[in-house]
Amino acid sequence: MATKEPRDDAKEAKAPAAAQAQPAGAPKVIWDDSKMLTSYANVCNVLGTREEIMLLFGANQAWHGGQKEVTVLLSNRIVLNPFAAKRLAQLLNQGLNEYESRYGELKL
């Protein structure tokens, strides 16, 4: 999994969905991406306890089918409390619904 330096064109991306629907009287959120790193992952796993949800990201670099064993190089772990994890799940569902309405259903 490669980590890249912050990109200037990332600021051109659409504002996060959470920033678009602010309740009246809520403070304005400023998204500072000046120190953000970008990583690529094609594998994700989720682990959890009562107090936290962990997202593990990595890269499967096995390009040949039929292997008896595949090593996934884990590179990032994100630890969330359950409330943040649930908000993330809602945002991911919203983003995937928008994607599928534009490009068609993703079949797993």
Structural overview:
The protein is of the alpha+beta class and 108 residues long. It has 2 helices and 5 strands; from the N terminus they run E-H-E-E-E-E-H. The strands form 2 sheets. A 3-stranded antiparallel sheet has the order 3-4-5. The chain has a two-stranded antiparallel ribbon with strand order 1-2. The two termini are 23 Å apart.
Strand arrangement, major sheet: 3-4-5
Q: Distance between termini? A: 23 Å
Strand tally: 5
**Helix/sheet category:** alpha+beta
Q: Quickly count the helices.
A: 2
Q: How much helicity do the residues have?
A: 10-25%
Low-pLDDT residue spans: 9-13
Radius of gyration: 17 Å
Shape summary: extended
Hey, roughly how much beta strand do the residues contain? 25-35%
Topology (SSEs and partners):
Elements: E1 3-4, H1 17-20, E2 38-39, E3 43-48, E4 53-60, E5 72-80, H2 82-103
Antiparallel strand pairs: 1-2, 3-4, 4-5
Task: Please sum up the structure shown.
The protein has 108 residues and is α+β, with helices and mostly antiparallel strands. Helices cover 24% and strands 25% of the residues. A hairpin with a 4-residue loop joins strand 3 (43-48) and strand 4 (53-60).
Task: Sum up the structure in keywords.
single chain; 108 residues; alpha+beta; 3-stranded antiparallel beta sheet; two-stranded antiparallel ribbon; 2 helices; 24% helix; 25% strand
